[in-house]
Design brief:
single chain, alpha+beta, Jelly Rolls, seven-stranded antiparallel beta sheet, four-stranded antiparallel beta sheet, 6 helices, 27% helix, 20% strand, globular, binds N-oxalylglycine, binds manganese (II) ion
């Protein structure tokens, strides 16, 4: 639907989104700028042009595939997720913030039990304040906001918000096998990761290993953290680990959350 609006506006000559911004807000806007082929156009060989009445934006198709995979097996990954210029801008921002010393070592545990434990978790993170996000982060949030709405519509998840951070794993850093949910808390429902590393090959290490369930010993997938690869999975159900990279490994990671008020059974204080 969204892309249809763009097509119509482009056709009527009223498209006002500047080219640079159009590139930053994702595939959807870009697809709207394509010229529709008229009856006098030369016959095209292959592939055939999609019918003009079905302008499904690429991202919407990705969202649908993600819903299917999250339902069937609990995780999803795809390459070329967002607009490449947008992901380049995010990668440059992460690198420059890292160079400025803006990241802090990540910890494990919660509250009084929070501690930095580089041998089990060696990344550094920079939390993103949604009210002070830069233009590329705002543009990515718009894409992920549409993803959140899609997940809510299709899976009835009641996801309310997205917490987001940049992360960097210096060479040799790892994150041992874990699930993204603290004991007695069920806020985090879907984990989302977008990798920012240019020209990354399997030999560079840093793969994300996913396991099919809490008792599984064999991984079900090993994902190369190459630029513009998206991964998402059900936070409480998919154990995962990050293998040590050979060079700095940058990502944006986050969680779609439900309202913090919803308690897990057993998480209320018990009287003794
Ligand atoms: C995390 C995490 C995985 C990755 O931050 O909890 O598991 O591939 N990240 O960066
Ligand atoms: Mn994790």
């Amino acid at each position: 639907m969204g892309s249809k609006r763009y097509v119509n506006r482009a056709k009527s000559g009223a498209a006002v989104v500047p080219a640079r911004l159009r590139r930053l807000v994702g595939n959807e806007a870009r697809s709207g700028t394509k010229k529709l082929r008229g009856p006098t156009a030369r016959p095209r060989r292959s592939p055939p042009a999609p019918p003009a009445s079905l302008p499904v934006a690429p991202t919407e198709r990705v969202f649908s595939r993600a819903v299917e995979a999250l339902t069937d097996r609990g995780w999803f990954s795809c390459r070329d997720f967002a607009d490449p210029d947008l992901v380049d801008a995010l990668a440059a921002e992460a690198r420059s913030l890292w160079d400025q010393g803006a990241f802090r070592p990540a910890g494990v545990g919660r509250g009084a039990r929070w501690q930095v434990q580089p041998e089990s978790r060696g990344d550094s993170v920079l939390w993103i304040d949604p009210d002070h996000a830069t233009p590329p982060l705002r543009a990515l949030r718009q894409v992920l906001e549409r993803f959140r709405e899609h997940l809510n519509r299709e899976l009835f998840l009641s996801l309310r918000d997205l917490e987001l951070h940049y992360a960097v794993y210096p060479p040799g850093a790892r994150y041992e096998r874990h699930v993204d949910r603290f004991e007695n808390e069920n806020f985090r429902v879907i984990t989302v990761l977008l990798y920012l590393n240019d020209d990354w090959h399997p030999e560079d290490g840093g793969a994300l290993r996913l396991y099919p369930g809490p008792d599984a010993e064999e991984p079900i997938a090993e994902i190369v953290p190459a630029r513009n690869t998206l991964v998402c999975f059900r936070s409480a159900l998919v154990p995962h680990e990050v293998l040590p990279p050979r060079r700095h490994r940058f990502s944006l990671g986050g969680w779609f959350r439900v309202r913090p008020e919803i308690p897990l059974p057993g998480s209320t204080p018990r009287r003794t």
